[in-house]
């Protein structure tokens, strides 16, 4: 873990890995389920999320 932080110049960072994993799970779970079911995943993710249908417009 320490080498990862050093390699990416994060040694002085306050990385909360539990929160990072939770956020990655939120981002990845829907596309991973679609891939596992061999289904197309046609949703968009704008900064901050969440996933929305590709034809929906974010306001």
Brief summary:
With 59 residues, the chain is mostly helical. The protein is built from two helices and two strands, in the order ααββ.
Overview of this protein structure:
With 59 residues, the protein is mainly alpha-helical. It has one domain. Helices cover 44% and strands 10% of the residues. It has 2 helices and 2 strands, in the order H-H-E-E. A two-stranded antiparallel ribbon has the order 1-2. The mean pLDDT is 82.
What topology emerges from the helices and strands here?
Layout lengths: L1 H6 L9 H20 L6 E3 L5 E3 L6
List keywords for this structure.
single chain; 59 residues; mainly alpha; two-stranded antiparallel ribbon; 10% strand
Q: If strands are numbered along the chain, what order do they take across the biggest sheet?
A: 1-2
Quaternary structure annotation: single chain
Calculate the terminal CA-CA distance, rounded to whole Å. 39 Å
Q: β content, as a range?
A: 5-15%
Shape: elongated
Structural class, from helix and strand content?
mainly alpha
List the secondary-structure elements in sequence, H or E. HHEE
What do the pLDDT scores average to? 82
Rg computed from alpha carbons, rounded to a whole number of angstroms: 16 Å
Counted by DSSP, the helix tally is 2
Biggest beta sheet summary: 2 strands, antiparallel
By DSSP, the count of extended strands is 2
The amount of helix comes to: 40-55%
Counting structural domains, the number is 1
Low-confidence stretches: none
